[in-house]
Amino acid sequence: MATDTAPETGTDPTDEPLYVDGTADLDEIVAGNDVVLADFYADWCGPCQMIEPVVEKLAAETEAAVAKVDVDANQQLAASYGVRGVPTLVLFADGEQVEEIVGLQGEDQLRSLIERYAE
């Protein structure tokens, strides 16, 4: 009997967070999806760890693709979006940045934000 623990090739990329490695990676995700929630985070950040299960759930249950951007590994990318604190969540719709939220957010707030832009 198959389990869901092993990643499959060819699965819908929006079902789980996509880990970003550089500007080109994020640009490709934004260009390839109608709605993208980019989670700028750091491993040492307590609120980032608290929001991670929420972000993973939104990736699985909404139309949005979720991109995870480690600010320590992608300092220039974070700076280009003006990220000064983590977690910072940036929402893209149709290739354009439409929202930016700094700090810990609840699932309901983030879900309604995504649904506002998802069609």
Automatic annotation (TrEMBL):
Sorted UniProt keywords: Disulfide bond, Electron transport, Redox-active center, Transport
This protein's record includes keyword Electron transport: yes
This protein's GO CC annotations: cytoplasm
Signal sequence, renumbered to the chain: none
Domain called Thioredoxin: residue spans: 1-119
Pfam families per record: Thioredoxin (PF00085)
Highest taxon in the source lineage: Archaea
SUPFAM superfamilies, A to Z: Thioredoxin-like
GO function terms (MF aspect): protein-disulfide reductase activity
Protein's UniProt name: Thioredoxin
Organism: Halobacterium bonnevillei
